[in-house]
Every structure is written in structure tokens, then in C-alpha cells.
Amino acid sequence: MALYEYVTKEQLAGFDRYKYSAVDTNPLSVYVMHPFWNFLVKFLPTWLAPNLITFTGFMFLVLNFLMLAFYDFDFTASSAGNQHVPSLVWVAAGIFNFLAYTLDGVDGKQARRTNSSTPLGELFDHGLDSWACIFFVATVYSIFGRGESGVGVVTLYYILWVVLFSFILSHWEKYNTGILFLPWGYDISQVTISLVYLVTAVVGVETWYQPVIFNLLYRDLFTFMIIGCSFTVTLPMSLYNVLKAYRSNTLKHSNLYEAFLPFLSPVLLFVLSTAWVVFSPSKILELQPRMYCLMVGTAFANVTCKLIVCQMSNTRCEPLTWLLLPMTVVVGGAVTRVFTNETLLLYLWTAAVILTHIHYGVSVVKQLSDHFSIFAFSLKKPSRD
Q1: Taking all residues of the chain, what is their mean pLDDT, rounded to a whole number?
Q2: How far apart are the first and last CA of the chain?
Q3: Does residue 213 sit in helix, strand or coil?
Q4: Pairing mode, if any, of strands 22-23 and 180-181?
Q5: Domains of the chain: which residue ranges?
Q6: Is this model's pTM higher than 0.85 or not?
Q7: Can you tell me the distance from the alpha carbon of 64 to that of 99, in angstroms, rounded to the nearest whole number?
Q8: CA distances from 77 to 74, 83, 92, 141, 360 (A)
Q9: Among the four given CATH numbers 2.60.40.10, 1.20.120.1760, 3.30.1490.100, 1.10.357.20, the one describing domain 9-372
Q10: Which of 18, 19, 53, 293 is 20 to 30 Å from 209 by CA-CA measure?
Q11: Contact criterion met (CB below 8 Å) for 273 and 154
Q12: CB 139 within 8 A of CB 145
């Protein structure tokens, strides 16, 4: 019996009919990374469960986040005159990030190698990927920090939202077309980020103070690349594929209203979280940027996971996520000064969001494990006694 049955009977029936369909045209992925992963997977023991590989990779990103939180909690360590993050920490960050990326690429190959591919594996993989967005964005931000040569926390906040929406676009696209078009930016960004961590360990964060060319700083290039890639590649391609399906009558949902319905909860989450940033009496984002972004990223992951469940089960996406209701109360209480200690309120609400998301994830994994008669982290079969 699951902790709570979040997945409906209709969705369970949809999972039974599910077939994986994805398109990956990125040259880096096709010609470099996949051959590398095919080579590596041969060294993994055949008893090793793919979901355990997925979870281990995710925990490397969490470890990076916690490690940088210890040395640079408020994102000021990279500023001139402050105690910088030790070089060995950047070495570890680069290795852990690449390990996380590699394990994320190997898990599916291990599943096919051991004949253990299930819809649960894909859901588990993509669900953790949705939460991983906040961990790697926050870790990368520590390279530049929030000083004069860095990026302001408000800019960080909007960059985070660009990354989050770029992630959900792929799953919204599959929700409507039935095909997951893997974005080019993911592979390029993961390899680049891993290298940047290692370069930072060698040359120091002071190198990033210098302009790339003329007055263009590395922080500006970094921001431009993220925003530019999202608005000139990811968004146009997703819209093109969905509208193409609409015109050819292959759209999986009845009309454009149903097609765009999954964006309602993410947009409302953006409105609520941005309202707190703009109208916060104590400027909560300036006070607690790491905790605030963690709260937003976790809430967004919860919304995204529910879309992925609907997408994989071929069921209608619910317009609203219930998590937005208490968040409305929290934000309203903060901006109207009903709660005077905003920092305490943020910490309590962040803890509530994290626990809620973990409960949701554990419940769904348990429910699907029971449904498919498998163990989530073992290739052994459950006893039927």
C-alpha cells in the first residue's frame, strides 16, 4: 500500500500502455557522450539497479549544493576582498557534476542491458532532473557571486526561472506530441559547467572578473547564453513542434486550451514567488537568496513531476497544484506584514515544501513499484507470498 495514492487508477492504466519515445539530435550527445556511456555501462555489475544509478547521480548534485552552501551560503565568497571558496572544492564540484551527468546518461543503458526498463525508471529519472535544476544553478552562481563583478540575486532569480521553464517545455511538448525532444542545451551546459569548475580551481575566481572582449564580462556572457539559448532555440522549437502537431491533427489533446493547460500552475507559482520578491518588506531575496531559490526550485519540481505523470499516463493535466493554495497564504501574510519575521517564515515554508515534495515522490515511487511488482532500487523480484 502506498503512503498516499497520488496516481489515479486511470493513470496506472495509462502507465501500463506507455511506450518511451524520444528524439536526440545533439551532435555532442550522439557522437561523443552516447559512445562514452555505452563503453562505461559494460563495467557496471548486472545486479546494479538503474534507479540506484539515477539516485546516486542526483545526490552528487545535492552534495555540490550543500558543499557550496557551507563555503558560500549567501553567494558573497567570490566577491573581491572576501574569503574565496577553496580550489579543492571547485575540483570536487567539477568531478561531482560530471559524475552526475554521466550517471544520468548511463542509467537508461543499464536498464536496457539488464532488461529492467519500466515507466517508473523514466519517471524517477525525469522527476529528479526537475529538482536538480535548482542545485546546479545555485552551484554555478557561486562562481560569479553577487559582488560588483558578479550577478545580482534578482538576476539569479530570473535566470533560475528561465532554466525551470526551459526544462518543463520539453515535457509540455511530450504531453502534446507524445515525443520527448531532448534539448541541445543540456549536454552542452553540463560539460561546460564541469570544465568551468575545474578551470576555476586552477585560475581562481578572479579570472572571471576580467572582460571576455571589450567591456563584455564573463557574467554577461553566461547570462546571455542561458537566456539566448532558451528564447532563440528551446522555446521556438517547442512551440513549432506543438503547433505542427495541432495543424496536422496529431495533437494528443482536443484543443489549444487543453494543450496549454499545464502552464497554469507554473505561471501562478512564478506570479506568487515574484510577488513575494517585489513586495517583501525585508527584501527577502536579498537576505536569503539560497533558501528562497531552493523553495522556488522545489515547488516547481513538484508541479513538473505531476505534469510528467500526466504526460506518461496520457491523462489530462490538472489545472492547479494544491501546493499553491498554502503558498498564497504564506506570500499574502509576508507582504502584508501579518508575519513579521520573513526569514523564519521562509525557512518554515521551504521545509514544508521540501517535505511535501519528498512525500509525493516516495508515495508515487512506492505506488508504481507495487503496481509493476518491482523494487525501486533492486533488480530482485518481490515475493508473491
Answers
A1: 92
A2: 15
A3: strand
A4: parallel
A5: 9-372
A6: yes
A7: 11
A8: 8, 6, 17, 11, 35
A9: 1.20.120.1760
A10: 293
A11: no
A12: no
What pLDDT, in 10s, does the model give residues 337-347?
Answer: 999 999 999 99
Cα–Cα dist 128/142, whole Å: 22
Alpha-carbon 307 to chain mean position: 13
> What are the cell numbers at 243?
503547433
Distance of alpha carbon 160 from alpha carbon 144, whole angstroms:
15
> And the C-alpha cell for 204?
581562481
- Counting every residue written for the chain, the total comes to 385
Measured distance CA(355)–CA(349) in Å, rounded: 10
355 SS3 class: helix
| Three-class DSSP category at 22 | strand
Interval 37-59: pLDDT, tens: 999 999 999 999 999 999 999 99
Amino acid in position 342: E
Is there a contact between 140 and 68 (Cβ–Cβ < 8 Å)?
Answer: no
